[in-house]
Amino acid sequence: MMIENWTSKIEKSNSAYDEARIVEQWSMDFLNRAGWNEIVEDTINETEEYFDNELEKLKEKLSEVEKNEHQEIIKHIHRLMKEDKDIGFNVSTGVVRDKK
């Protein structure tokens, strides 16, 4: 249900910019629902290895539906990264670009 809602918004977007903004919003929504936003707040000075380990722990807690949604978000991010250099940074830092 969640995936269909977000992909419908992506399909209805009028530009690549809007599409990227929607994926950024979706990513933030997912992070909040999955409780992943907490890892970012407490780990400013941690290593990449620490992040990788914490991310793996979080992934193990996801339901199959959540795992599928996470993979769908990643798929859209990778597709958009070919033409939009900001999306990777925005998603990794929790930024959603302004609506044009």
Summarize the structure.
The chain is built from 6 helices and no strands.
Q: For the record, give the distance between the C-alpha atoms at the N and C termini, rounded to a whole number.
A: 27 Å
Which consecutive residue ranges, at least 5 long each, have pLDDT under 50? Answer: none
Number of helices: 6
What is the 3D form? Answer: globular
Task: Report the major sheet.
Answer: none
How many strand segments?
A: 0
Mean pLDDT: 86
In helices, the fraction of residues equals: over 70%
The radius of gyration over CA amounts to: 14 Å
Helix/strand/pairing category: mainly alpha
Instruction: Give the SSE order as H and E letters.
Output: HHHHHH
Oligomer: single chain
Strand portion, in percent? under 5%
Description:
This protein has 100 residues and is mainly α. 74% of the residues lie in helices and 0% in strands.
Helix and strand topology:
Blueprint: H1 2-12, H2 16-34, H3 37-41, H4 48-60, H5 64-81, H6 86-93
What key attributes describe this structure?
100 residues; mainly alpha; 0% strand
